[in-house]
């Protein structure tokens, strides 16, 4: 059966909120958005490119992250990541939103994500689901022990506040798989469930 793989940017103190832009997610007065870009380097691009090209399956988003990605990536003409994301099947979980999804190859998940996601994997056992960002959705999946792998980009930065990946979730021990340091001090680490 396919796996659920979480790909997350984190600070050393576990903050996952708004790595991309200052206005990405200001909930709870978060004022540190856009913290990840200064750590971009060719090593990170190569490792993430390899991960994306090896990925077989679909993307899984919470509504908020989906809307953010859909508002940005389809407009990045000439970027090879855009082509990959456009062609990849995307599933969107939401407790509130419905209606048409503007980004090609996008589908709403029906029902509660904790039930719908495992059912989706059962229907397509040869495919993985990769969760990008989507903290609320990811926390729900983690609380129900549904995430199989974590690909964490751990940035050498302590923010002190913000939404954290592991808040309120007790996963126990994870199985270390691999780690690659970048030239800017980011550690790209892979873990699986024991």
From TrEMBL:
Listed SUPFAM superfamilies: Dihydrofolate reductase-like (SSF53597)
Entry-linked InterPro entries: DHFR-like_dom_sf, RibDG_C, Riboflavin_Biosynth_HTPR
Membrane-spanning ranges: none
Pfam families hit by this protein: RibD_C (PF01872)
Domain Bacterial bifunctional deaminase-reductase C-terminal: residue ranges: 3-187
Protein name stated in the entry: Dihydrofolate reductase family protein
Native source species: Nocardia amamiensis
